[in-house]
Amino acid sequence: MVDLSRKYSWNGNEALINAAHMVNELHGVNDLQVENWLDYDEVDLLTKISKPHKETLLHDYISFITFTMYEYTLDKHFPMAVINPLVELMNIYDVDYSYLGEAPFIGLDDEDLHLYGYDQNLVEKFAHKIFKLYGEKLEPTMVSDIFTVLFANKQFLYEFNKQLQEVVEVLKLKDHPDYLKKDGVFKRCKYLPKWLQKGVFMRDKGRCQICGTDLTKVLHLDNQENYDHIIPLESGGTNDPTNFQLTCEHCNKSKGDRSTMYHSLGARFWENENLFPK
Ligand SMILES: [Zn+2]
């Protein structure tokens, strides 16, 4: 028997806490919204969003936000504000950091280091080492777990893609003829990979995200599934996986190219008659 538990296990609490942090950043708490990030991080945007990649643009954004948070704190010489949370994460995700050496200061606050006679430089060295270890061993898992929460949150994806739209809209065909169909409009990707279709179908629970009709073929055999750009390409949408939703053929056709109509259908686990009282 293959043990799949490790492959499928994740830390839901850490993912949720960090996902909430991403929502705040997208809303501009530290001025690290999409446009600023793209400038600051010199992201190769066109290659990235001209066709779907498993490592989506949102993965890159999450990675940037978490890295920046720790880097900033290290630069400001608050090593304990990096060490303590990373040690906690290493413990939660079962990453061995013992080879980094003795660290009796773990758990102290930055202002207490001096009081207990610890050498600031040595502690900062340790902070850089554990941050490096985080990048090597933990970061991909953390990013993937946070992505899992955010990819299920249509509202976040919509806001993320709306910010992206502002960047795409001003791109000029003459500067990027390989990627664009005309000014501000990306070429349609030739086909949607199966992994993406499967992921979006699972996330949207087999329902058209506009009218709610069942597309699983359990209830209706004749309903056709469509993978719809939430922000249409014609309106500055991209081929990044974060910009797709499941729709039926009727809604897909009637939505039109310029409408950014979007619904956040929440699949409740059971009905509650107290919701939406008449
Ligand atoms: Zn529909």
Automatic annotation (TrEMBL):
Under InterPro entries, the record lists:
HNH, HNH_nuc, NA-targeting_endonuclease
Pfam families noted in UniProt: HNH
Locate the HNH nuclease domain: which residues?
195-253
Its recorded name reads: HNH nuclease domain-containing protein
**Organism classification, top ranks?**
Bacteria, Bacillati, Bacillota, Bacilli, Bacillales
